[in-house]
Amino acid sequence: MKDSAIVVSGGMDSITLLYEKAANIALAVTFDYGSNHNKREIACAAYHCQQLSIEHIIIPLAFIGQHFKSSLLEGADAVPEGHYEAENMKSTVVPFRNGIMLSVACGLAESRKLSHVLIANHHGDHSIYPDCRAGFVHAMSEAMRHGTYIGVTIDAPYTDISKADIARIGKRIGVDYSKTYSCYKGGEKHCGKCGTCVERKEALRDADIQDPTEYETE
Q: Which of 1, 78, 127, 132 fits as disulfide partner to 121, beta carbons 3.0 to 4.6 Å?
């Protein structure tokens, strides 16, 4: 039964969820909020939605890029390099991004009479992104349920698993990760050095998937 909308970026996690839950998804929404990597992610999201014959819409959120503070919004040179556990990675946080996107997705879901909004946050996000943590997801889901006539809720099945676990799911169901994009710098090739590139490499390695990604550093 197609009773869900999904927030899909075009990265590994949301594309895996798109394929895993395709039978339930009536609508995929991607947000264009002015990040360095938005354009390349959007192209990947559109490709996979077309492959699955899932309706895909792009919602502009230009005000985020214009008024919010984050290295993801300030060009490639502003993005720090290293592992997500490093303190400087907090500069990549876009304040309350998931809260804003989920609010819009909730309105879309109720407008389409869809009961659930899917999001692909995972356990590796928790230490750095407050709006990826289980407590936030639960509270936001409750707010959405109380704030809609049909009781829209969030379905976030990857909250307590790692990116490598997600990659293992993708491997099992045949997701083509060469058609996903992760790099926070937004270049034609992945930089291989920013936090999300490092995490991508580790996840594919730990899932025993040959990395199809083109990196600038290789």
A: 132
Residues 6+ apart with CB under 8 A from 183: 37, 40, 189, 190, 191, 194, 196, 197
Residues 107-138 have pLDDT tens digits of: 999 999 999 999 999 987 656 788 889 999 99
- Residue 25 contacts residue 48 (beta carbons within 8 Å): no
Distances (CA, A) of 141 to 16, 22, 156: 21, 21, 10
CA 153 to chain centre: 18
Share of the chain above pLDDT 70, in %: 94
Amino acid at 145: R
What CA–CA distances, in Å, run from 64 to 98, 111, 113, 170?
12, 24, 28, 31
Compute the distance between CA of residue 38 and CA of residue 19 in angstroms, rounded to an integer. 21
H/E stretch holding 6: strand 4-7
What amino acid occupies position 49?
C
For residue 38, give both structure tokens. Answer: 């938005």
